[in-house]
Amino acid sequence: MCIVTPNPHKMKTNSTLTLACLTVAGMVGYYVYAGQNSTPTLRNNWMHYIYTESTDNASGRIDETNAFQIPVRNNTDYLVDEVDVTVSYRKEAGEVLKDEKVAIFNIPPHSVKLGTAPNGPRGSNVQLKISEVISHSLNLCYPGSNRDYHDPYKCN
Predict the structure, then answer these.
(1) In this structure, are 53 and 94 located in the same domain?
(2) pTM to 2 decimals?
(3) Residue whose C-alpha is closest to residue 76's, from 26, 38, 43, 110
(4) Is 5 among the domain residues?
(5) The domain that contains 111 carries what CATH number?
(6) Measuring CA to CA, how many Å separate 129 from each of 60, 88, 132?
(7) How many domains does the structure of the chain reveal?
(8) Between the chain's N and C termini, which has fewer beta carbons within 10 Å?
(9) Do 31 and 49 fall into the same domain?
(10) pLDDT by residue (tens digit) across 123-137?
(11) pLDDT average, residue stretch 110-131
(12) How far apart, in whole angstroms, are the C-alpha atoms of residue 93 and residue 152?
């Protein structure tokens, strides 16, 4: 806390000190307030922090029917309880041959966890899309089910 005592001979110095104290107090208050409000911002921009990473098998044509690994990255400070990835096997023209859901559980903060995609039709293209994300510690539920357009992914 800054305490400034008035002194007529040092009025300019006191004004500078007062201004400096107010500036520091304002900056500290802003960062404390921003820190309290970071969870909704993170929750509403989850797709920048929780995502699938492409692999050679997960993007493009599959010539074999072997299963492949799906890496899901969690770049938050929170545990992600579940991420469901929809694996779409498609023909060259884009027609869906087969959709499969792969669930990956308990992804620790700032880490990658692998899920295994099932065997797909020979000669198909693969597309990955996150279809569900649940993080109880972040209070994140995607797809959102509440009607709050300011915080649509907050769990009810």
Answers:
(1) yes
(2) 0.70
(3) 110
(4) no
(5) 2.60.40
(6) 14, 8, 9
(7) 2
(8) N
(9) no
(10) 778 889 999 999 999
(11) 90
(12) 34
Contact (Cβ atoms closer than 8 angstroms) between residue 69 and residue 105: no
Query: Is residue 70 within 8 Å of residue 128, measured between CB atoms?
Result: yes
Backbone angles phi, psi at 61, to 5 degrees: -85, 140
Strands 68-74 and 50-52, by their bridges, are: antiparallel
Q: What is the pLDDT of residues 32-56, one digit of tens each?
A: 344 445 889 999 999 999 999 876 5
Strands 96-107 and 60-62, by their bridges, are unpaired
Tokens of 8: 């007529």
Q: How many other CB atoms are found less than 10 A from the CB of residue 120?
A: 23
Cα–Cα distance measured from residue 110 to residue 95, given in angstroms and rounded to the nearest whole number: 36
Which residue range forms the structural domain that includes residue 112?
45-142
CA-wise closest residue to 136 among 52, 78, 85: 78
